[in-house]
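Run log, item B.
One chain of 383 residues. Sequence copied directly from the ordering sheet:
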Amino acid sequence: MAPPIVQDKFILIRNLAIICMIGNLLYFLFPFPAIVWRLSFVLLSLYCVYEDYIRYGFSGIEKAILIFTGLNLIYFFVSYLWSNPSTTTLGNTLYALLAYVMFAFLGKEGILTHKFILVSAILLTVAAIPSFYNAQQLALAKLASGGDETTVNASTIFLMLLPLLLCLKKRMVSLVLYCICLFFLITGAKRGNTLAAIIPSILFLWMLFKENKKNVFKISLLVIAVAAIAVWAKDMVLSDDYLLSRYEQTLEGNTSGRGVIYSTMWNMWSGSDNIVNLLFGYGYNGTFLYSPMHKFAHSDWLEILVDFGLLGALFYAAIFISFARLYFRLDRGYARLACIAIVSIWLMKTIYSMGFTDQTLALMAIPFGCLFSEYFTDRSISA
């Protein structure tokens, strides 16, 4: 156990990290730009990366995340030789990925306590609500100015909060927070987010039933609650014409132009006769700069193949391979459930959207940190 003064320092960093995450969600309430919150969070993360290396050494999954993050940094700076790469994209990537190493370190320090997890889950969920409505207002303003898209991407926040609910000991609180998340996932009408929420939802409900399987009264209440939630969710979907039209479009094969984007990006990479492009890609933001469509790929794997080549795809795949190794080293059932929930959401995001460049990915770093703490398993875990 670390000395009290050192322990207090890391508790302060832990609390500041959550404040930065909440401030980033509510950036529109403050008289300074959101980059202040993001930069503060990244600096805290970098300090924890240093402390983690000095005090514990990196686990396999931390190494995989840091190597891929380093690859992004190298490509970003090298790309200045021929272009002006997006600092926003890099900032989002650093915010999202470094969070995992920071919370893994805080987990190893044993300071991701039950109380901290509970308070963080409540505060982040509450902060996500005005963040969602602010994004909704921005979408409506864009629609009024001639746009044709009203989907609210901020519903992703509630998707990323789902694995955290598996870490709560207060099950009634977790159930209430789950209903809030489900409400905004449905309201947001993001088909990919709704699909990605299925596995974490099944795990969450399975956990509740497993815990109470010997108590007939509690099981009965759970059945009634789940039935009520199912009916409520169904009514929400059926009463939302826009959401229904989105699902009908999906069944008819309308994927918001993703099919064309995917085939264009794949042909751009696989059809290249330059071995350098195949192995190392076209450079940072290559999909946007050099593709005929001048758009991002809306798929991590295609984005990485075009930007970083086969090398980048292998480094990214190493993260998920490391997740699998970590899963098999976890002893407790709930830790494994949280691990599956994190991986399932992240993997789904890599397929239909942008994962590692989405700063909301950092929200899943909190339950990820729990996998390294006394909250779930032995602090000496190495994966």
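Observations after the first pass:
- DSSP finds 17 helices and no strands in the chain.
- The two ends are 21 Å apart (CA to CA).
Flagged for discussion on Thursday.
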